[in-house]
Each structure stands twice: as structure tokens, then as C-alpha cells.
Design goal:
Blueprint (H helix, E strand, L loop, with lengths): L1 E4 L11 E4 L13 E6 L2 H7 L18 E5 L5 E3 L5 H6 L3 E3 L5 H9 L3 E6 L5 H7 E9 L11 E2 L6 H12 L7 E5 L4 H9 L6 E4 L2
Parallel strand pairs: 5-6, 7-8, 8-9, 10-11
Antiparallel strand pairs: 1-2, 3-4
Bound molecules: NADP nicotinamide-adenine-dinucleotide phosphate.
């Protein structure tokens, strides 16, 4: 990676030079981000000058940078039937078809095991553990039993603050909700049948 570095404490900021360094190592539970921008703060030049050494000892060479904005650069592999592959691509995910052979398809698409699994379907614990790198994270909204196998079961709760935050994202165009169908009150049974069929893409909405 290309980085600005200094090799010793200095008051001469021209000693900060740009050079090629090896990419950082990524320990478990960490992510590597691609920095798009970094802020410069008083703490940065205080660190370069060695003024914070008593409280923040350092190892040279040092790449300064306190505030950064970047992109995690995660690759997302999503499971879907063929009919929804184009939709997943549009969301930035790489689609694979679910069903028999799913584990092999995921391993092939990922080029090995994956760093995290999010399950929104249920009944896929064996597949999850087969594709997940040992010790890495998995979570499910549909299978409480993941908690007995090192995973996290997530149960949503009404939360006004979070809902307001999601509303802002909708206003900014960063979050969209696909409406798969609207139904009148007398069509509620049909809406339930459609949902139970298990292939609705988006929300079914009752408009009384
Ligand atoms: N814990 C919680 O708080 C919480 C909250 C919400 C939902 N849930 C649970 O989460 C599950 C999903 O909810 P949902 O609202 O997303 O349901 P949904 O609307 O019925 O999900 C339908 C979608 O799932 C896809 N799908 C069906 N079988 C699949 C499979 N084997 N692999 C991958 N994708 C598959 C379908 O795609 P195709 O048409 O391509 O098959 C369709 O796009 C349900 O079990 C629900 O009860 C839990």
C-alpha cells in the first residue's frame, strides 16, 4: 500500500515521506478498509513530535492518521433462485443458487471458506458451518439453534430511534424497500398464501 510514514519522532513535518509498505495484516474480528480520506487533527502532529509518548508509546515506522473514511471492500455472496440473480447483482452481491450443492457453489465462488454468514432463511446450519472459516461469525434471524453453535440469533424489536434512522436513509435514497404486492382487507387470505409460499421478494402490504 502507498502510505505517508515517519521513522522517528520529529518536529520537522517534512520528515513525513510517502512510500510503499506491505498491506496491513488482518487479525480475526478486524476488517481492512481502503482509505478514501483521512482527517488531520492536532493529535496527529502531537504524536509525530513525540509529545504523547508517555501515554501512547509507538513502534516505528508510523503511518499517521486518526480519523479515516474508507470502504471495507467486503465481497457479498447471496443465495437466490436463478430468477433473482440479476436483482442480487444490482444490489452488489454475487449470486449463487440455493439447494443441493450449495456448499460447493459457495466455496467455489469465494475461492475458499468465507469470513461471515448471515442466514435469513433457516434450516441451513450445516451449510453455514461447512462454508465458514473456523472461529468466524455467523448469525441467523430464522434459526435460534445457531446460538448453540457459536452463532448469534437476532430477534428484531420495535425501536423508534432506529426506525427514525432508517427513515432518514430512505429520505436520502440510501435505503429502498421493494413492495412485492398490495392487498385490500378482503384480500388478506391471499396475502398470507403468497407469503407462506416462501418466494416473495420484498414486502406484502395490506391497504385497508
Ligand atoms: N428473528 C427476527 O426478528 C425475524 C425478523 C424477520 C423475519 N424473520 C424470519 O426470517 C425468515 C425470512 O423472512 P422474510 O420476511 O425475508 O421471508 P420471505 O419474504 O418469505 O422471504 C422470501 C425470500 O426468500 C428467498 N428464499 C426462499 N427460500 C430460500 C432459500 N432456501 N435460500 C435462499 N433464499 C430463499 C426467496 O427467494 P426466491 O424467490 O429466489 O426463492 C424470497 O426472495 C422467516 O423465517 C422469518 O420468520 C425473523
Amino acid at each position: 500500500m502507498r502510505a505517508a510514514v515517519y521513522d522517528a519522532y520529529t518536529e520537522n513535518f517534512d520528515d513525513i515521506t510517502v512510500r510503499e509498505l506491505p498491506d496491513p495484516k488482518v487479525p480475526p474480528a478486524s476488517v481492512l478498509i481502503e482509505v478514501r480520506a483521512a482527517g488531520v487533527n492536532p493529535v496527529d502532529w502531537k504524536l509525530v513530535g513525540g509529545h504523547l509518548d508517555p501515554v501512547m508509546p509507538t513502534q516505528f515506522p508510523v503511518t499517521p492518521g486518526w480519523d479515516v473514511a474508507g470502504a471495507a471492500g467486503a465481497r457479498v455472496i447471496g443465495t437466490a433462485s436463478e430468477a433473482n440473480h440479476e436483482y442480487l447483482r444490482g444490489l452488489g452481491a454475487e449470486p449463487v443458487t440455493y439447494g443441493d450443492g450449495l456448499v460447493d457453489r459457495v466455496l467455489e465462488a469465494a475461492g475458499g471458506k468465507v469470513d461471515a454468514v448471515a442466514d435469513f432463511v433457516g434450516g441451513v446450519l450445516d451449510d453455514t458451518l461447512a462454508v465458514l472459516t473456523d472461529g468466524r461469525s455467523h448469525a441467523s434471524v430464522a434459526a435460534p439453534s445457531v446460538a448453540e453453535h457459536g452463532g448469534r440469533y437476532i430477534w428484531v424489536r420495535p425501536d423508534g430511534t432506529e426506525t427514525a434512522r432508517l427513515g432518514l436513509l430512505v429520505d436520502e435514497g440510501k435505503l429502498t424497500v421493494e413492495v412485492a404486492g398490495t392487498f385490500g382487507l378482503d384480500e388478506v387470505p391471499q396475502a398470507f398464501k403468497d407469503s407462506a409460499a416462501g418466494h416473495v421478494r420484498g414486502k406484502l402490504v395490506i391497504v385497508p
